[in-house]
Amino acid sequence: MSVGPDLHQRYVQACQNLGQPENPFVAHVLQEADKNDKIGWTKGITLKIAGNNHLEPVQRVTDDHLQVLTSVLHNTVFVTGLDLRWNVLTDAGAKHVATFLQENSTLRYLNLMFNDIGTSGAELIARALHKNETLVYLRMTGNKIGNEGGMFFASMLQINSTLEKLDLGDSDVGTQCLIAIATALTQNKSVKAINLNRPLLYSQEEETTVHIALMLRNNSSLVELHLRKHEMKNFGVERLCEALYENSSLRYLDLSCNKITCDGVKFLAELLKRNQTLEILDLNANRIEDDGAIYLHEALLLYNRSLRALSVVSNNISGKGLVAFSDAMKTNRELSYIYIWGNKFDEATCMAFSKLIQTGRLKPTCTDVEPYEADGRVHLAELSHGLQKHYYWTPRYGEETNKAANASLEIAAVSEH
């Protein structure tokens, strides 16, 4: 077995050379990596230097700390992932990231979620990816790069042919950026998952949804698409459904937190009758009500056998619609995950879902409700399971080992790393 580099010792030396004080949290992570390095030499390791780590005392990483760290990792081939979420990196730190991406040939996963990187930092990172041929997954979530910063990533998607997963959620991108990204993805064949959650849109015309729908007609590689908080209404859903009749690759569609009513769900139900590709559908926080639930029930009961996970959390659905979902699950054996909390539970709903769980048809880890008895009646309590349980946070006890509690990780083909 060849001897790998001593990351901690190199870090101490680099701090001295650059005249920078050591970050104790970074030093600790590197020491732990040195202890476990024999496994990492063959499989590659991810250095988890998250600023919201609850298990260790954390001093958040600054731009200067990052400069030292990237100098240490410059020629370290077995570090394939770098998790720097929830730190205090700015555009100056993005410059170090960009230099590292241009010179490094092994990093596959980079998480910069919720730092303070702006437009100029986004430009540096996006331009670095014009030449980088190894990075597969990039998370820029929560960095306020704005529409201009997003445009640099749209341009990058026209050139880069390696990146498979890009997360630009909560980044204040706008209409121009969304249209540019949709246009780029019409030709890009490598991106398999993209998150475009919560853009800043000032029009009610749904132009961005129309362009995304046009992209879906021509794109045959995208597996996962997140369109949360797009102000999408029934018109936009109809455009998406029309496009998805011609799409045979998309498996995960996130339409949560929009303005979809039962009329929009009618288009989705018709799509599900013919589409045999979609496996995850997230309609969390819309307003489909009982009529929308009945439309979906009919499609799932009689026609669709591909959908595996459905979220209808907080959709103003009463007992009639919720019991219809439980009936569909009795016949449709493929639908394994269903999330219903935040609707109007009645006694029939509680009994129906309690029976599904007790008979083993619905596993407790595959739903967000748990039955209990009080005063001789069955009730449902909430469980913290969902499609994206750990999108923004990680549990205080460490990594979540039960992927079933976070259904998208268990089902979707596009891996976390």
Automatic annotation (TrEMBL):
InterPro entries: Leu-rich_rpt, LRR-containing_regulator, LRR_dom_sf
SMART domains: LRR_RI
Superkingdom of the organism of origin: Eukaryota
Pfam families: LRR_6 (PF13516)
Keyword Glycosyltransferase: no
Keywords: Repeat
UniProt xrefs under PANTHER family: LEUCINE-RICH REPEAT-CONTAINING PROTEIN 34 (PTHR24111)
Name by which UniProt lists this protein: LRC34 protein
Annotated organism of origin: Lophotis ruficrista
Taxonomic path: Eukaryota, Metazoa, Chordata, Craniata, Vertebrata
